[in-house]
Amino acid sequence: MTCSRDREEEMLHSFRILVVDDEKVMRDGCHRVLSDAKYQVETVSSGEDAITMARTIPFDLVLLDLKMPGMDGLEALRLLKEHDPEIVVIMITGYPDIETAVEAIKVGAYDYVPKPFTPMDLRLAVERALEKRRLCLENECLRRQLGTRNELGRIIGDSKPMRKIFEMVRKIAPTDSTVLILGESGTGKELIARAIHDNSLRKDKEFVVIDCGALVETLLESELFGHVKGSFTGATHTKHGSLELANGGTFSFDEVANLSLNMQSKLLRVIQEREIKPVGSERKIPIDVRILAATNRDLREAIREKTFREDLFYRLSVFPIRLPPLRERKDDIPLLVEHFMEKHNKKKKKGAITVAEETMELILKYPWPGNVRELENVMERALILTDDSVIVPGNLPSYIREQGRYKGDTSSLRPVTLKAMEKQHIEYVLGKTNWNKSKAARLLDIDRKTLHQKINRYSLAKD
Fold first, then answer.
1. Distances (CA, A) of 354 to 256, 340, 357, 392
2. What pLDDT sits at residue 215?
3. What are the angstrom distances between the C-alpha of 397 and each of 76, 403, 425?
4. What structural domains and CATH numbers belong to the chain?
5. Is pLDDT at 412 greater than 50 in this prediction?
6. Which residue of 16, 163, 178, 345 has the smallest Cβ count within 10 Å?
7. Which of 411, 374, 414 minimizes the C-alpha distance to 396?
8. Which of 268, 173, 174, 175 is nearest to 224 (CA)?
9. What is the rounded radius of gyration, in angstroms, for the C-alpha atoms of the chain?
10. Burial class (CB in 10 A: 0-12, 13-18, 19+), 135
11. 16-20 and 61-65 strand pairing
């Protein structure tokens, strides 16, 4: 829902009402009374037609007859609320009884009006119901204007480091500056990129993300810039590039450090000249896109290693944002645990589940090399494993449980430095997947190129 002034006026003052009744005289009477009150009114004669129309036109209020041939009012009510939980429904009937009224309210009806009713009765009932709808819409617009936690994507956090990040996003989003988002894998770099776009002046245009490590160079160039028919083997038709398709919007390069030096050079030219040239074409296409880039690599180190262009680094890092790892924002862990429990429990429908105090202690002690993404995976696994209403330490992976086993002698304690934990975790996942690198990369939520780099860095080898 957008909250432009025109749309807000439309939402708050031109309500759409659907009248559903098998009696023509009732439909015509309601249409006349409500049209005179300046509402936009449509009428249908059956529950089936009501569902069909509600799926194509967004109604604010439905006046729904309870007793109709075919689909009755209660079934129509259920389907309407499934399609749009916010829609307001008033049940109307000539056969009022308490049981039916209670059932209708349980299913989601706002009110229940018995026949016969006067034009004044109808107007008052509609005004009361639309006041509820009006407040919901006003609150939604107000939340959009003032900003809430959800304004920044689905980012959960109230710690001091995250509040600083939110403030930076609010300041940089309305500009067109290039942003470089830095952070370890799993810290939420793509969520921040999305939040920047959603709070920018380009929010109604395209937001395109490309994983720079997911495609080989030849395919990546075609994906970014497009190609003309016959420009290479397999180019059976002309293709528009992602940068062209994102024109007017925002383009985010995920794991930009994985670009080859050749592609870095071409990206630098795009940023400088604001135009692209499809593969096999001499024609240059002007583009207007905001560039965002993200990486888990230390780009200054990559510059020293001559794997990343220094001039591109300075072009990208007009406004750098460094996302803190989870171990630096542990105050957010209980909030995140609660969020992931609610999220995954909706799918598993296990009822109310809590986290035991000793379980939370272990979660807080663990350094989380995989950050928020790893925490989510662990909580989803714990929900699957628990047979009770409480998540206990036994539902956590062994490498997390062992962090709390030693209180004095640490000679047998597993390595706890970040690098040691990352090495051990990668080794563990590779072992579990029988060194299937594609599967391991998916489980670790990194691309194959990054996994290869880490395998080489830690000198890992299959036994």
1. 40, 12, 9, 9
2. 76
3. 47, 11, 11
4. 5-145 (3.40.50.2300), 156-324 (3.40.50.300), 327-411 (1.10.8.60), 415-463 (1.10.10)
5. no
6. 163
7. 374
8. 268
9. 28
10. exposed
11. parallel
In 52-151, at which residue ranges do the beta strands (DSSP E only) sit? 61-65, 88-93, 111-114
Contact 263, 279 (CB under 8 A): no
> How, if at all, do strands 319-322 and 290-295 pair?
unpaired
Q: In what order do the strands lie in the sheet with 16-20?
A: 40-44, 16-20, 61-65, 88-93, 111-114
Task: Give the whole-angstrom CA distance, residue 156 versus residue 172.
Answer: 20
Span 68-73, mean pLDDT? 91
**Percentage of the chain surpassing pLDDT 90?**
41
Packed helices 73-83 and 98-107: angle between N→C axes, nearest 10 degrees: 20
CA distance 61 to 59: 6
Is the peptide bond preceding residue 114 cis, with omega within 30 degrees of 0? no
Output the pLDDT for position 142: 47
Ranking 149-163, 204-218, 308-322 by mean pLDDT, the lowest is 149-163
Structure-derived torsion over alpha carbons of residues 295, 299, 301, 307, reported in degrees to the nearest 10: 90
Tens of pLDDT, residues 146-192: 443 444 556 888 889 999 999 999 999 999 999 999 999 899 999 99
The string of DSSP letters for 341-367 reads HHHHHHHH-----EE-HHHHHHHHHS-
